[in-house]
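Blinded run. Sample ID left blank on purpose so nobody reads anything into the name before looking at the predicted structure. Input follows.
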Amino acid sequence: MAAKPDFLNIKLSELKLDSENPRLPKSMHGKSDAEILSYMLLDASLIELMLAIGENDFFAGEQLLVVKAKDNEYKVIEGNRRLAAVMLLNNPKLADVQVSKVEKAVAEAKFKPTEIPCLIFKIKDEIHAYLGYRHITGIKEWRLLEKARYLSGLRKSNFSNINLAQASREIAKIIGSRADYVRRILVGFELYKNIEDEAFFRIRDLNDTTFYFNYIADSLNRANISSFLGIDFNSEVPESAINAVNLKKWTQWLFEKNDQNKTRLIGDSYDLNSLNTILGHEEARIAFDEKGYSLEKAKELTDELDNQFQTFIKKSVEALENADRLAIRVKLPYEDAEEDLKNVRRTAQKILRTIQENEDIDEN
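Blinded prediction complete.
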């Protein structure tokens, strides 16, 4: 049985980033701290984490998991992003990218911890076992609805005296997130409360445990759906003019099942993108909303399919022209080259026949 890890507050100067961290791409393994910090600044939302720690200090319950590398030096196996954020808060000159953002985060920071709570393990494998327990059988991840409810409560208790944009920025610093994301979640929760107040529009089996809040969050990331729901993110109070009729329709489209146990919409990016396109086109919107057209049939009334068709054809022509330029220099074509080229010809002829048939129908 593995020994229990020791808890210790360790000086920042004694903590080292793990250059073999599996969360880093292989191309970054073995790189210097400066190179790893640059990568994290561009890829890992490090600024938001700096803002969170700078605003709230380092949370003792989120200890770094380390192993002793040598005297007065510890390698951080779990928590490299948190260590990187603290390193930059104490020495912004380490940043050679996102420099202005780093300097702004440092200037706003109330806390710049120089000692970090750590759990010290004998060997790396003990940390992997600990993480396996924690992530699989340990702490349960909050659902997005639970997070939204928490953020809404946080705004009411701590930031009710400032506008939504300011509150979103302050909350984002607390939780290490983006202000625009927090704002969208807060507005989405106001929509959810309207749905909840209407008893989920009496949709069978729909309640707070079966409602997918991410459908709201993802919908509000699309301008035409937001407008349809009466949300105006250019307003100081985006949810001040919620369209109750359209909110009911949106909820029914996504959650109300027909006799075949299917909803009109699936809450994935494809359907939401299609709905966003349809709601931005009056004829298509009427067809879907008032006439009961399917999503695909209504989408055909927009010009999106025409644009997609043209793009596919032009890209195909460009790809074939590039292949033609290379053909004379290719020593041995790959095994199925001849069959693939025959398929290209057959497909092109089929498309041409379809276009000609459609033109004949239009003329008649």
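Unblinding after everyone has recorded impressions. The longest helix spans residues 337-363.
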